[in-house]
């Protein structure tokens, strides 16, 4: 409700004299902000005086002020090209067209207005938004909204969560003594709404004033209710010098019987300007609110006041990180953690689809960051404002006049729909590529550090629910196989509603006494100490033994045929033992590994004594191998 703060507080319009009595009466209602009555009289005038441009322009503005945009557009279209039309009329017509989703037409009339006021940044932003409809219409698929169905037919807005209920402002049942001259509907009152699947409204006791009351907020301890209301019009000098009836923020205290009373106006209120829409930090020591007090950036701005030594301090403007020369209003504080809050508010001074759009501005240790606009479905071409989140951060309420034919604001609930992200793992035999069912898998989430266990199904696959933008690592320990490893990143899930990442882990079957060559294990001539380059390769064997704690191995060293048999046998034994000692030094149990020097007994090619061979052929025989000699079942061995 763009005009909620400014009910009875619009700028004064000049009273034009006219011989037509009905027209003069309509003008009186119009200048008194009695738009409901004025609109009926203008309609009557135009039935006989069809060319009265001033009546058409004022009728169009009445419907604009009442948020009846379809009717407003109709009358602006008939009169905005007349000589009576002012730049303000052209701007209002552009705003109505944009809220009705007619962006190309709205752009034309923004251009017309900018001829008279070319430096108006909020209008420039509005004009630019007409060319960026596709970009601004981007929708966030993770959120769904639905209208809250209530028995009241009037506007409902300004939700505030407290306990298991919701404090809302709503237009009360219309009666002769309880009718707003602005809208022709009931006064705004504060209600408590049940926070369940069948919500219903109950009036707040102790605040039954003959004026608009709301929205409001309750302190975290439940003792105080801060709320917006019209300044009393029957008090002496209550009217401002501009003859407007402004808004003020008051506080009520809860009595022992649960009723609100002892109402006090806050010290920074002033009859010359409006203050409203209070929002409290969780500790109750700072209040954010909306005001059009002098010295702001233009229109209405967001201010804050601190509670110091039992009193509210002089208000301070939040600054240009939030405020523009347009209208910023309906602040809501969402606490994140100590020293860090998210300030939600609505603005019509930045690029948007039309009307008031919802924005979010982080505030850390009092420092404010430029606000960012919420995506659809929170924002629409119409007014969207007053958003609150439940503690889970995944649900809540906001108000909007979208889909409203009579201009009323309705309450919408929203809920985050968690994205459906998955990781699908295949476990395959390294030699045959066959899928391996019933394979135990450990899955580690790199972001949370948590590890869970799973088992592949009959198809050799395992599917798990996953997070977005994280890495998963897999360890497969299947009986009779070496442990297998794999990983996958889900960074590609970002900004998607549903996706699946795929990973494959291949595992090698263990064959008892099958030699497995370790490449690049080199020794200096006639030496058996472990060189740094050899240590790198032996560390890989250490990892294999750590990953497969059930296996025991034999490590063998081989030479080529050159040199005597005895010399080669002795040298190979020393080299094998040196490698084994190195592995044991890395924490592998001595009982799990033995050394065996094979000398030149197991040549891999023709290069035996007396056969001429190349150096590369001799090199092929100089090698280090290991073979699994035993697997402990069940897995009870230590490293």
Radius of gyration, taken over Cα atoms and rounded to an integer in Å: 39 Å
Estimate the helix proportion, in percent. Answer: 10-25%
Q: How many strand segments? A: 33
pLDDT below 50 for ≥5 consecutive residues: which ranges? 4-19
Under CATH at level 1, the class of the largest domain stands as Mainly Beta
Strand content: 25-35%
CATH architecture of the largest domain: 6 Propeller
Please tally the helical runs, counting DSSP H or I stretches of 4 or more residues: 11
> Gap between N and C termini, in Å?
70 Å
Give the CATH topology of the largest domain.
Neuraminidase
Number of domains: 4
Profile the largest sheet: 5 strands, antiparallel
**Average pLDDT taken over every residue:** 88
**What shape does the CA trace take?**
elongated
Structural class by sheet pairing and helices:
alpha+beta
Q: Would you mind describing this structure in some detail?
A:
It contains eleven helices and 33 strands. With 639 residues, it is of the alpha+beta class. The protein has four domains: 116 residues, Serine Threonine Protein Phosphatase 5, Tetratricopeptide repeat, CATH 1.25.40.10; 274 residues, Neuraminidase, CATH 2.120.10; 88 residues, Sandwich (Immunoglobulin-like); 116 residues, 60s Ribosomal Protein L30, Chain: A, CATH 3.30.1330. The strands form eight sheets. Strands 10, 11, 12, 13 and 14 form a five-stranded antiparallel β-sheet that branches. Strands 15, 16, 17, 18 and 19 form a five-stranded antiparallel β-sheet that branches. A four-stranded antiparallel β-sheet has the order 1-22-21-20, with no helix packed on it. Helix 2 packs antiparallel against helix 3. The longest helix is centred in the C-terminal third of the chain and has 21 residues.
């Amino acid at each position: 409700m763009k005009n909620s703060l400014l009910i009875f507080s619009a700028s004064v319009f000049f009273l034009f004299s006219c011989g037509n009595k009905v027209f003069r009466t309509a003008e009186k209602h119009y200048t008194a902000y009695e738009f409901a009555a004025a609109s009926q009289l203008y309609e009557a005038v135009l039935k006989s005086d069809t060319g009265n441009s001033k009546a058409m322009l004022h009728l169009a503005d009445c419907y604009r002020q009442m948020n009846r945009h379809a009717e407003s557009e109709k009358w602006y279209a008939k009169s905005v090209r007349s000589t009576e039309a002012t730049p303000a009329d052209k701007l209002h017509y552009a705003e109505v067209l944009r809220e009705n989703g007619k962006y190309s037409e709205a752009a034309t009339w923004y251009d017309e207005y900018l001829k008279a006021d070319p430096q108006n940044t909020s209008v420039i932003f509005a004009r630019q938004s007409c060319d960026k409809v596709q970009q601004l219409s981007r929708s966030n698929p993770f959120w769904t909204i639905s209208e809250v169905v209530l028995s009241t037919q009037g506007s409902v807005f300004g939700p505030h969560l407290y306990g298991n209920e919701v404090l809302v402002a709503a237009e009360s049942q219309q009666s002769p003594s309880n009718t707003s001259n602005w809208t022709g509907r009931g006064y705004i009152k504060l209600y408590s709404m049940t926070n369940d699947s069948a919500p219903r409204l109950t009036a707040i006791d102790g605040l039954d004033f003959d004026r608009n009351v709301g929205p409001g907020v309750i302190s975290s301890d439940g003792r105080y209710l801060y709320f917006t209301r019209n300044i009393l019009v029957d008090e002496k000098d209550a009217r401002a010098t501009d003859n407007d009836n402004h808004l003020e923020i008051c506080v009520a205290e809860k009595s022992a019987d649960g009723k609100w009373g002892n109402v006090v106006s806050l010290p920074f209120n002033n009859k010359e300007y409006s203050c409203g829409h209070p929002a409290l930090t969780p500790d109750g020591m700072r209040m954010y609110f909306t005001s059009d007090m002098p010295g702001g950036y233009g229109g209405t701005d967001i201010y804050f006041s601190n509670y110091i030594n039992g009193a509210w301090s002089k208000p301070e403007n939040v600054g240009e990180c939030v405020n523009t020369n347009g209208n910023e209003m309906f602040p809501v504080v969402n606490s994140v953690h100590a020293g860090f809050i998210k300030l939600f508010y609505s603005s019509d001074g930045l690029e948007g689809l039309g009307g008031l759009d919802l924005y979010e501005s982080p505030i850390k240790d009092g420092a404010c960051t430029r606000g960012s606009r919420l995506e659809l479905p929170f924002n629409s071409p119409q007014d969207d404002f007053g958003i609150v989140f439940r503690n889970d951060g995944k649900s809540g309420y906001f108000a909007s006049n979208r889909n409203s034919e009579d201009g009323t604001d309705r309450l919408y609930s929203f809920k985050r729909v968690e994205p459906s992200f998955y990781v699908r793992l295949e476990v395959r035999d390294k030699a045959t590529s066959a899928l391996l069912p019933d394979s135990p898998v450990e899955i580690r989430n790199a972001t949370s550090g948590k590890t869970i266990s799973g088992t592949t199904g009959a198809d050799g696959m395992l599917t798990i629910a996953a997070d977005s933008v994280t890495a998963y690592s897999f360890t497969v320990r299947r009986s009779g196989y070496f442990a297998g490893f794999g990983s996958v990143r889900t960074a590609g899930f970002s900004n998607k509603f549903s996706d699946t990442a795929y990973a494959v882990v291949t595992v090698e079957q263990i064959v008892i006494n099958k030699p497995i060559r370790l490449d690049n294990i080199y020794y200096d001539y006639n030496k058996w100490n472990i060189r740094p380059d050899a240590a790198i390769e032996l560390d890989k064997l250490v990892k294999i033994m750590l990953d497969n704690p059930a296996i025991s191995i034999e490590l063998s060293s081989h030479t080529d045929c050159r040199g005597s048999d005895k010399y080669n046998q002795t040298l190979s034994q020393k080299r094998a033992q040196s490698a084994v000692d190195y592995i044991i030094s890395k924490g592998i149990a001595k009982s799990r590994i033995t050394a065996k020097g094979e000398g030149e007994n197991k040549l891999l090619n023709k290069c035996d004594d007396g056969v001429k061979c190349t150096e590369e052929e001799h090199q092929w025989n100089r090698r280090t191998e290991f073979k699994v000699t035993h697997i402990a079942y069940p897995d009870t061995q230590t490293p």
